[in-house]
Write a structure and sequence with these properties.
Four copies of one chain form a homotetramer. By secondary structure, chain A is an alpha+beta fold. In chain A, 37% of the residues lie in helices and 13% in strands. In chain A, helix 1 packs parallel to helix 5, helix 2 packs across helix 4 and helix 5 packs across helix 7. Chains A and B meet through helix 3 of A and helix 5, helix 6 and helix 7 of B.
Amino acid sequence: MFDYTPYAGLPETADEAKKQCVLANRILANEHVLDGYGHVSVRNPETGNTFFQARVVAPEFVTYDDMLEVDLQANIVTKTDFRAYGERVIHAAVLKARQDVFAVFHGHPHEVVAFSTTGMPFRSLGQFCGMFWNPLPVFDAYRSGSGMLLSTPEDGAELARALGDAYGIVMRGHGFTMTGNSVQQMVMNSIFLRDNTKMQLMLLPAPSAEIRYLSEEEGRGTEKTQYSDISLGRCWKYWVARAKKAMPDLGDF
Amino acid sequence: MFDYTPYAGLPETADEAKKQCVLANRILANEHVLDGYGHVSVRNPETGNTFFQARVVAPEFVTYDDMLEVDLQANIVTKTDFRAYGERVIHAAVLKARQDVFAVFHGHPHEVVAFSTTGMPFRSLGQFCGMFWNPLPVFDAYRSGSGMLLSTPEDGAELARALGDAYGIVMRGHGFTMTGNSVQQMVMNSIFLRDNTKMQLMLLPAPSAEIRYLSEEEGRGTEKTQYSDISLGRCWKYWVARAKKAMPDLGDF
Amino acid sequence: MFDYTPYAGLPETADEAKKQCVLANRILANEHVLDGYGHVSVRNPETGNTFFQARVVAPEFVTYDDMLEVDLQANIVTKTDFRAYGERVIHAAVLKARQDVFAVFHGHPHEVVAFSTTGMPFRSLGQFCGMFWNPLPVFDAYRSGSGMLLSTPEDGAELARALGDAYGIVMRGHGFTMTGNSVQQMVMNSIFLRDNTKMQLMLLPAPSAEIRYLSEEEGRGTEKTQYSDISLGRCWKYWVARAKKAMPDLGDF
Amino acid sequence: MFDYTPYAGLPETADEAKKQCVLANRILANEHVLDGYGHVSVRNPETGNTFFQARVVAPEFVTYDDMLEVDLQANIVTKTDFRAYGERVIHAAVLKARQDVFAVFHGHPHEVVAFSTTGMPFRSLGQFCGMFWNPLPVFDAYRSGSGMLLSTPEDGAELARALGDAYGIVMRGHGFTMTGNSVQQMVMNSIFLRDNTKMQLMLLPAPSAEIRYLSEEEGRGTEKTQYSDISLGRCWKYWVARAKKAMPDLGDF
């Protein structure tokens, strides 16, 4: 049931990238980071300047046949009548601005939405989520009349500018957008930001001056160990095995 | 497993309305908004002045054969020995007072019961539940000796007056009653009010003056996007697919 | 799947009492009120002065064949090598002191253990758990060296005295003991005390002076509606149906 | 489904120790104390100075064939290409320093990671987790550049010194390491420390001066009752039965 082969690095074919995109959707739904809304994208390794993303469907039920190819201006490349996510502009803009990014998440776990309204920084409390030692930027420049959604290429570009070179960006009263230099890292970052935020909420009633967040030295150290092939591979295979157990239709996907 | 067809709008037949009523019961139990108590109603589109509701049964186990037809004076139209919910008077009164309402929810999720006793307003913290930017009215006029239940047509009318033209009304120490101009909107409103309240509870220990609720401008914007056909349809199909997975007896209902 | 027959009142045979005892164990485990520890008892309606209880086994896995008969001095009546719960003295003493009681619960849900250490009263926040409008007594007279367990008939008698004529009694740092004039009422009281305590914990950070607990008038009213045959029957059948779905080995028990 | 045989005491063969190690991994994953990370170890009763532990794999999916044998200097004894956990040095050092210890846990439940950053003591709130009446030591001497991981024999020895003769030790911003004089006691201690910490978090907003923790007298009493054969055996068999129900691949392991 558990796959013991070492972490294989980035996919080299479009087909493999699409399969990882399906798994990422399923994993993030199974771990309760995505619900009816939200989406992920994976860069096409064969082109470099297009990406894969599901058509409009809840992540828990995404299949291989739902995959659309989109370019970095957010145009749909696939010839299809399928409906694409309006917020694909976020993914296009981030993948355009950040050549180091291979995969992008956008979603709305309740813990992050709630904490984002407090004005308090998102900071690492633990080794496993030490990559967030440097508080994440927070976006709060919604266009008037937008319903707090980002739907134009300009909206996407504005978010990408605010993201800068951070791993991710919190969106006040909305959710967060997260990156990874692989699908595995994007999934780990997304799950662990949710988990770290859950821990920050647990501690809201504690005397705030006493709380020991990770120091920069500690945080930088954990990035090395958490993003090692052995750690990324182990987590990914754990999440895949759990998703396959909960979602028998995945088969030996 | 996921149904990709567009949102179909209101049902045109009594049969289809009854089926949506069964699904709404199952979805709201599956998403933990209804437990052993609580009920939903759906207007009969063929008459306009009667509605469907289950006989006395826990929502998680409602079937098509449990459906009763009730009129807007809360009289049971169906010839049957089935026992009807005493609080059907709430549904009758709201559907009578509000011609714009097609479906009504009444239930008691713990989060809402608890928060209703604090005297604090129910207000939107996030984009996805932005329809509650305008704090919901709170009902607290229980008849002496009623056991805090509404069981007469007069009780129902009093609640409907307090509801006014809001989406829903919180009932202090009891739960809430919610409306929708479709079954899909009633289900979304009910789930998202529970979720928003859960987030408000998470933030009870945070410095309250710092919390950023949605502004009126933001809230009005989210109503447009959240209630769009694409958004309503996607969520409904997500909740239906989850309910069918958890409740195999639904089959291809 | 749902049993629509009306509430049948107290069992008249020992066999039926034993079956209700098995179901109560399974329900309270399935609803997360009992874990590896804890136990329930049901008076034998054929004798009046003996009761049924499982041998030492986790409640989630209790079967009909585990039933022991015990008298009100806590002697084991059944000829058997089975090991009995040490704390059966609680059940014996309560069933001896309270002729109005037909069934007893003793368990340790985390919410109640935690809240019991705060010195704050256990009071009703909602209609559905309105039977606790009158704060429950709290027991804190553990014998030195007892490990906070009640294991002698004298320990049991002391608890029964502290219980008085209340529905139940909280045990500081330990859990609670609950009664019912039927198995159905005992199960409802046990689940709803846990739920009410969960809500009290949710509100710990709220301004305590503002919280509106149920008044005596409201609480007394809810006792009538919650303990009606229609309400007790509906809840019991809901919990039975859920337990049977989660525990297929129960069959059509 | 439930195993009624009395608690059998320590395993006498390497084979039985390995089987208990598999079950401990599965139980601690099933009860949400271990996630993708974390590991347990069981002393080899045939040698006394080696122990069993899984190769690199998520605990939820550990099988008998994953077992490695490791010595107390953390050298891998088994001839294999399998990859071993880097933090096996913790297990080696504790089993070397503490001849009374038969099994060791190391993991990172969110509740413990969060609470460990507050500087507040970990103390017993309830009878069932009364073994923690004496606040656990807290480790906070991470080597610079270590990423807060313990990966050398010296790191392990330092932790073992800080542990002293306590049941376990909390690691600030990381998790905890727990011991037992049997696999059953190690599992109980690990689950109940997580549970006690969950209760401490529930009470963070309560007036702290009013909270009644267990006294030394109460705590020492609960150690006797909780660690009795009857109590350890009942809990272990409960957790085994639950794991087997949730993980059918365990069969009649």
